[in-house]
Each structure stands twice: as structure tokens, then as C-alpha cells.
Amino acid sequence: MSLTISRRKFIGRTSKALGALGMVPYFLKTNLKKAFADPIGGEMKLANYYDHFGVSETLLREVMSEALSRGGDYCDIYFQHKISNYIGLEDNAVNRAYSNVDFGVGIRVIKGDQTGYSFTEEITPSAMKLAAQTAANIADSAKQVQPVALQLHEHPNYYPIETAWERVGIDKKIPYLQKINKNIFALDQRVVKSNLWFIDQSSYILITNSEGRVVYDYQPMGLITVSVTAEQQEKREQNYFTLCGREGIEFFTPQNVDRLAKESVRRTVALFEAVKPEAGEMEVVLAAGSSGILLHEAIGHGMEADFNRKEISIYSDKINKPVAPKFVTIIDNGTNENARGSINIDDEGNDSQKTYLVEDGILRSYLHDRISAQHYDLKPTGSGRRESFRYAPMPRMRNTYMLPGPHKKEEIIQSVKKGIFAESFTNGQVFIGAGDFTFYVKSGYMIEDGKITKPIKDVNIIGNGPKVLEDIVMVADDFQMDEGGWNCGKNGQMVPVSLGLPTVKVAKITVGGVS
Amino acid sequence: MSSMNKIDLAQWVIEHTKKSGADQAAVSISKIREVEIEFRDKKLENLKESTQNSLSLDIYVQNRYSNHRTNDLRKESLVKLIDEAVAGTKYLTKDEFRSLPNAKYYPKEVDIELKIRDLTYENITATQRKDMAEAIEQSAMTQSDQIISTTSGYSDVYNEMVQVHSNGFSGKIESTVFAAGAEVTVRDGESGRPEDWYWASMRYHSDMPAADLLGKEAARRALRKIGQKKIESGKYTMLVENRSGYRLFSTLYTPMRARSLQQKNSFLENMLNKKIASEKLTLIDDPFVEKGLGSRIFDDDGLAMKKRVMIEKGILRDYYIDNYYGRKLGMEPNSGSTSNIVFEYGEKSMNELMQDMNNGILITGFIGGNSNSTTGDFSFGIVGQLIQNGKIVQPINEMNISGNAKEFWNSLVAVGNDPYPYSSWRIPCMMFEDVNFSGV
Fold first, then answer.
1. Which of A155, A237, A156, A150 is nearest to A193 (CA)?
2. A199 and A129, same structural domain?
3. B376 contacts chain A (CB < 8 A)
């Protein structure tokens, strides 16, 4: 199936089915050329990173000279060491653990808007130079650029954590899953199965480029996801709840442990009464929080500047034009504290920032990486991201959300004659040129004559991005950032993102249902 | 590293894992070499070349299980990884169902030539790759002046994998895949820039379609979307193109898997030998299709593959049972995932089936949506063409279909004669009656 579907733009939850990875205490010390001496996580300085990847400034400059030897304009080198640990609970026992270690370096050469890319998992001078020569082949010109002396670029830290994950052994994580599982079964006798995952990741990156910048970052992530299956008479239903962020283990407070059990059970058992709405266009109210998936699909992807540079986005000719009512402001931000989509620097080494996509209803800025910024003669927006050292970066979203508006949640619901209230979601997708986008509502409610009535489940919602922005008629003051484990896919690369929304009403959108 | 060296390394890893305190272990080591090219605006836009190695280790310590993956294959790194992984595994809860498959399920001496490795792979030059991508772009761009942009591409992959289990299994796979195609975006007045794609992937380079065809098809598909709109909600006859059928088959595949059955997440539990679809549906899992993208002698668990009838004239005959969940369910393992999906194909082509439709919708693509394996509920976004009296009259988009897989597959009234050749799921076009569409 591989390539034929790789170009779709979509988003999905980190799912239990992705449990391809792992665990183990103090894992980081294992796969290094030189074992991490003491400083780990946020304690590490540039010298520690050089040591960790076994490189020096001299070697980096030699590799960059090689990369530019065919006449490239620019090159960068991206080192990454990422450790992922997964622990799973099923049938009331923590009986599986997975780990994954990714270690390597990617070398990119740019010539105009052309990219040459190669990577190696072997960080030795000869392997790196060979990869540099391969990437260099994108260019074929006598004009030579020389890399300049390196200077450390400092940046703020938007995801402080108390304890690096490498200091948290498997024995410390297991009790969380056991506690949540016990609560789940105690909360409702209809629960028959549960699946829980505790996932932590630590990614160490070091980036340098031919303009002399060198920068490093430690990117942690913590996630617990809970899936519940319940039975009532002959009927079965399943639903889930996730909490995630660039967080340490201290994120899983007693309150959050409690929420994981209660929310996952509540969302599951509500489905026993759920019906399918009637098919067709209707008013849709989006609950505060994870409904931000609307923005991710309806506008976010279309604002990624590579699509606009190629003129294949429906937003290609809309900069500085009104696209939504005045009370709509939409932001893509990499600096929200501890949010899943936050990045201190992007994967090209540029500072992360808060970018206004729509300000008071006017379309303001695309999301830029180096290549698109150069094309438009603008500064990058810190949006150049990549899945790993195996890929070249491209413009991507970070945390995408709408600012609060002038309305109240209650008045929004009361204003609906017949529609739905969409509450939890699993995935979405967009055609960036035509503007069609979808998101899948896992659970929600009907709204009839201004009141919330029966629960609904498993309906896809489909609309047109620019049309839906115009049709946003009310925005409440109750903004929430979602804490779910969203993964965004584009051209075969996945990156972690988050999203958020206040309660929002869209006048008309097509809801999948029965005729 | 050659295959022989990989087997030696795998055996060494197993020995070391056992020495560290595991009683069973399984190792697979793979090397993937990949070249990817993207062409746009008469220029090579992206060129990427890479070789990657990975090692996956399953550890069993007295019925405690963990799995570890790494791309650092140096022995000193592996020693540390194994020692810590075995130590970590001991913290887990004992699970009586965790152990390697019974050796009787492993393949015996096999003499089947799958033809999944093209020996000419080594001879393909950088110029050939670039020329192919360039020719595809050119072919698409010349189709119409309404085309805004074409991104064409070419890639090839060589994969070499060995797998060794401590209780007597050892296997090796060498395979190639070639892929090429394009994505085309066209102008549609003020209303949008519809896009579509056409990609082919094949085991043998010589089986790839000509660049000209790939470019033309991608352009034709995008151009026919011009003027697309949503139409009235209602029940329509639905004809699903072969390449989109995988989305519908997924509503049956997940519930047919052992994990879904054991975790009570399958509406197909206790449905063996019962009717779950119309008699038009006969579905075979065939691991031995020559040049098949899913062809294999053994699966991830090392289980010997067999050709199996999964659904016979609408009757469910088999599940996908892997080693672990098979033990939990008390069922014999066969294989936990699909190899090649082959249908009993119909007599008619898609065009012939279209002529039988009075008022229906031809689905040319799905967008988003999902399905619920526990209940069978599904809902997908669609794009397609409205068919009236056997003729295409209007491109449509921004609509959903919804239903429940328990009833939905009974409404299958015809399958075409056109298996999709570029996927391991060789699904033909399929026609369903009375499908719920939501639009205006």
C-alpha cells in the first residue's frame, strides 16, 4: 500500500495499535558511542552534545564543505537520538513492554528550491562524508559556498520537566497503569476490557548549518492512553481517553490519573444510548478543546507554505483578505508551555514562534520553512519540522488553536434549532487544493430546540475549509487546549501536534448519518 | 552486511539474550536501501538516497515479554541493550500465553518461487530514475492548460531481512519494490484547486506502466473533478473503484483479527461459518501470488503461510490468528495479518457495471472517516461522479457515506473483473445498493 497513499494529509490519534515500541530502565545509556556521563536531558550543554554524537566543530565543517562541493547554496546537518518506551496493560496485567532507539544523522543540501537529502545511522567521519556527497548531487554548479565558523544559538525552553525520562525506570511507571485500571473496573460494572499504554520519549537533537548556526534541544514527551470496552445486554461499545504533553512523570498527578479512568469510562458507556443523526447539512457546535481538529484540517494544512509556493492550496491567493468573521483569530504556536506540539527550535534550527494565521478575520501568514520563506522573501516562522533524521524538513503545524470570542457556551447551544454537539474525535483529513476536509466524531450529542438531547456516535463530518470559516457564527469565551496525543501526517512523515478551540458554532456543515 | 553475516549476528544476539537470562528470543535484522526522486516545474525538486538497518528483538523471560528495536547494530551497543532489556522484562507480569510459536508451525523446506526480487534492480541508474520522473511530469502537464502543478515521483526500494527464533526457525527475504506516479492540481474557476494522483507500484521494474500513462492518468483524474459539488442526501447505488476498495475492506479486516476477537472489539465474534456478506463476496488470502506485493513464505511470527479462503460466498470461513492472541483464544494460529487479498472476480469491467446504474454514485476516492470494529459502524467522506442512465453526469464531492458493516456487506450486488494491481489487497470494483449518502 506504501507510496500510493503516502501523500495524503491527515491526522490521527496515537493509537494502541501503534504499540510498536518500548521501555527499559535507564535506556539512554545503552546506545551511545560514549555513554552519557552525568548530565542528561535539559542539563546537557553543547560540549555534551558533541561528545554524545562523537563530533567536533572541525569535523562538522569538513562534512559541510563536502556537502557544498557540487555548488549547493546551503546545507544543514541534523543529529538525532530518540528513545521511546512503551508499556502496555491488557487483561489486568502489565504484560508487555517495547522500546525503540533511533540514532542517526541527516544531511540536506539546498540549491534554490531544490533539495538533496541523505542520512546515515553510522555517525563516523567517513559515513557522514559519503552521505554529504550523496546530498550534494542535487547541485551541479561551479560556484562554491564555504561554511562559516560555528556559533551556538541560544533559545528559551518551553517544556521544562522535573525529571528526565531516562531517570524513570519501568518499575516507577507500572503502578500508574495498575491504579488507573483498578479505577476503571471499579467505576462501572459494564466494563469488560481495558487497554492502557504508558509512553515516554526523549529526543536529543543537534543541528548545524553552513551559515554558522549550531543549536541543540532536548524534547521530552509523556503520554497515557486508556481504551475501555463495556457491555450492556447484547451490546458492546468502546471508546478512549488520552493525556499527553511534552511533560515529565510529574504530569501524571493524582487528578490526571483520576481523569484518565473517569473520562474513558464516561465516554464509553454514554455510547449505549447513542443514535446516528439524520444525514445532511445542519448546525454543528464544536465542544471546547479537541474540536480544534476543525482548524487543523479546514485551514492549518492549507496554510503550510510549501503548498502555497506550488500554488496548490485553496489559500494560495488569499493573504490579507477577509476569510472569517471579525471575532475569529487563529494561531499556530510552537511556544505553549509543555504542549505536545511545542518546539523550542524547529528542525532547521530556527526559533519557534507564535504565528497568526488569521487575525480578526483576515488571513495573515503562512507557515514557513527555509525554502518557502526564501521563495516569498520572508523570515521563516519556525515551522520547518521533520519526523526524524531520515527526512528533510517541511512546513508543519505545531499547536493550532482559535482565541476566545464574545459568546457564551450556553447561548450557543440555546441558539441551535436542530444540530449536533461534537465532543470527541479520532481523525481527520483534507484535500488542500479543493478545500474538502473531514473529521470523525467518535461521540457527541444531538441538539434539539436549544437543548442537548441524545448521544450520537461514529459520524464523519465533511466540509469545505474556506466556506466553513465564513460560516463560523459564534465563538465562546471558554478556550481549552487539548491534551490528546495527536499525530499529524503529511507526505509520509508524522509529527506530534496539538490543537485547541473555544466552543464554536458553524452555521451549516454536512454530517454523515442515515437517510 | 550480507545475509550470511546477518544470520550470524542474529544467532549471536539470541545466544547473548539467553545468556542474560531469557529462555526464548526471536531476532529480525533488515537492511533497506531506498532512492526517492521528486520532479516539479521541469526540475528535480527532491533527491533522497539512504540505506538503513534495523534490528528487532523479542525477549521471553519465563513468560514475560518485551520487544526492542534499534538501528545501532554495533556489538558493544547491542550487549548493553540486551542486558538492560532482559533486566527490564523481569518487572513485567508473567503471562502464560507469552512464548514463541510451537515449532510445528514453522515452514518446512519450501520450494516456492515468489518472484518478489527483481535482479535488474542493481542496474538501474540515477539517470533512468530521473528520466522517468521527468517524463511523467511532462506527460501530465501537456494534458491541459488548466493544470496548475504536477509533482511526479519515482522511487525504488531493496529490502533484505533475516529472522531467527531460538526454537528452531530461520528465514530470509529479499525483495524489491518500484513505484512511480504523479499528483496533479488543476484550476476550477474561483472555487478551488482539485487534485488527484496516480501511482503504480510493482515488484519488477519491467512491469511498471509507461511514464506517459502515469502522467496522463493523474491528469485525467484531476481534470474530471472540475465543477465538483455536493448533491442531495439520500440512498444511492454505489460503485467503488478498485483502488478505493481497501477502505471498505478495512471494516471487515480489523474485526477478523485475533486481537479484536480476544479484546471483545469485534462484531464478527462467534460468526465463523455464518453469513456476513452477500454471496458475491469470496475473499482469499493468498501468500503465493507470483510478484505479489504481499507474497511471503512466513509471517512476522515465523508461521508458515497457507492459501486460505477467508470469506466464501458471503460466509465467514476464517480469522486472522497470530501466535499470542491465538493462544489466548485457544485457537490454532494461522497468520495474524493479510498477505495478498484476492477475490473471486466478476465478469464485468467497471465501465460495464456503470452502464447498469440508473441513479448512482461512482466513488473515486475516500477522504477521512473511520470505522468501529466493535459495533461495525462506519462513516467515510467521499469524492466521485454521479451516474445517471449509465453515464457520468456530474463530479461530486464533500459528501459522506455511513452505515454498519454488519448489514452493509449484504448489499454488495456485483464485483468487477479488475483487481487493483498496485497493492497487496487486489480488490476489484464493487457495487452496493441503497447506501446512505449525506450531502445537501
1. A237
2. yes
3. no
